[in-house]
């Protein structure tokens, strides 16, 4: 066994897993607060990455200005979607709401094809290009720096939810909407906040992933791949999203390296099936018991 | 730049509205004979739309051009198409609809999946000859697909041309090594088995095979595998852009002096436009001259003039455009030969006319006279990216496989 190779592969997988965790965070935040599975999360990622392309490539702004602008654009998009399309669906069947998010995904694909055509795109280079070595282990620079940025934002998120008023309101709403409402928390605003923050995480992840692998109107499919992460970790668990993101990223990469690229997805779905059998609510998800 | 993106988008949208009518008809000509119909299932939306819009432009422009030349033996040409979204079921539906309403003599299929799915019906109808976006090796099986052809070399033949070029760079006993990197799709896997056989026959060692998802994926682990085997050449297949760029950039960052090559859909100018300097040295096999190459010829000049006339702002026309034009050119040649022989335009007669093509001068679209073998045109040339010039330049002679 070539341990150096295994170490390098594992490092690459964990770094990619960090980005999966960031996308998963977008899923979880929205689900946790509003009980909506947002199937348009991948397309929100894609939209933000195209905004970055317009700002950094088209308008030739510095990437470090373009990135927050694009992330802001993606977050606003999330907020607008919630207010105009999801809120009117409150009280409707979950399937209807899911169908709305699928419809939104389709609309976003059409919008980017209209403005940027269906051509595949590459984002302007903005991450350092010098190879990164951790001891003897090589790590591709885009993945390494993408991971660092993603990890920094994850830490900020965790601090926000732990200590800020907004974060506490969101957690309170997630655990009991009626109680939160009776305590004077503006639950509708919290719903909107969850969409904004969820979209923010997804937007940042979208830019970092597109910087690594390129961009096209079909980019949003990555969002669906990350659904595996969320289900394994637990749909309503931020900790689950982080741990499952890292694990699935590592597993995918190791399976691809040792078994071949065609076994990346089957490996993750085997894990998904096993987890669903053992813990249907995910590794860290809430096991809801309904008493009648 | 944003303005340029927006205007490009609007141009595409303009094209979209044109297509909204779903039918593109040739200019009305002062011709009395019945029109000959070119049908098409065209992917103007969906994952293949980046090429579909250009294929469509090539077919449309050729139709206008041939009508301006008096049509085919006096018959005006009518091009009827529908957008398929690159979905087999929609392509099949489009085929049935167009076949029912317009009885096309020839038809453009948008994918290998569609062309395979429709083959039984096509064979039983016996009225239509088909080609399209696919260069699939399987479609050159004349027993199963007698009425379908490939408008260039099939993917295995493309690998054959690439491997012949690689072999020509080595010497006996010291052949370069090669790695195949392909997408985990039917398209990606198409030439791999034949490629390995051909490499073995030429004494080239295939030191690694990498399979990835198509499109936007992280390939750093795959690059680490390649670093260990240090291939002299990496041949990509089944991609358009990503992840080719990441393989090239990361392997060069590691100090490897590997050379990179790709097949038809991986050899568009898109690679240069998007990768910039990083694309320098990338090589592709291409059966047609590039739109902006130094080559000339009566048909190539006519193509450029028609392209300029139909959209003066478009500038460079991608390989999809050349492919669309060449498809229609072959259809015309086949129909002409069939009519000249006094035969009916049946699939069987047209397939026989196609098989009779030998040393055909394509007027500069392909640089040498071409001969049809097993319903394909097994010819191509290796082109290398000159990033400074922003274009591909030929680095081999035309290679015509037997």
Automatic annotation (TrEMBL), chain A:
Gene Ontology terms: biological process: amino acid transport
GO molecular function, one term: transmembrane transporter activity
Principal cellular location given in the protein's record: membrane
Membrane topology label: Multi-pass membrane protein
Transmembrane segments: 12-31, 36-55, 61-81, 93-118, 138-161, 193-215, 221-251, 263-282
UniProt cross-references to InterPro entries, sorted A to Z: ABC_transp_permease, BCAA_transport_permease
Family that this chain belongs to: Belongs to the binding-protein-dependent transport system permease family. LivHM subfamily.
PANTHER family per the UniProt record, alphabetical: ABC TRANSPORTER PERMEASE PROTEIN, BRANCHED-CHAIN AMINO ACID TRANSPORT SYSTEM PERMEASE PROTEIN LIVH
Protein name stated in the entry: Branched-chain amino acid ABC transporter permease
Automatic annotation (TrEMBL), chain B:
Domain Leucine-binding protein intervals: 35-367
A Pfam short name: Peripla_BP_6
Swiss-Prot/TrEMBL keywords: Signal
UniProt signal peptide: 1-30
Coiled-coil residue spans: none
Domain of life: Bacteria
UniProt cross-references to Gene3D superfamilies, sorted A to Z: 3.40.50.2300
InterPro entries referenced in this protein's UniProt entry, alphabetically: Leu-bd (IPR028081), Peripla_BP_I (IPR028082)
Family classification: Belongs to the leucine-binding protein family.
PANTHER family reported in the protein's UniProt record: BLR6548 PROTEIN
Record's protein name: Amino acid ABC transporter substrate-binding protein
Species for this entry: Marinobacter profundi
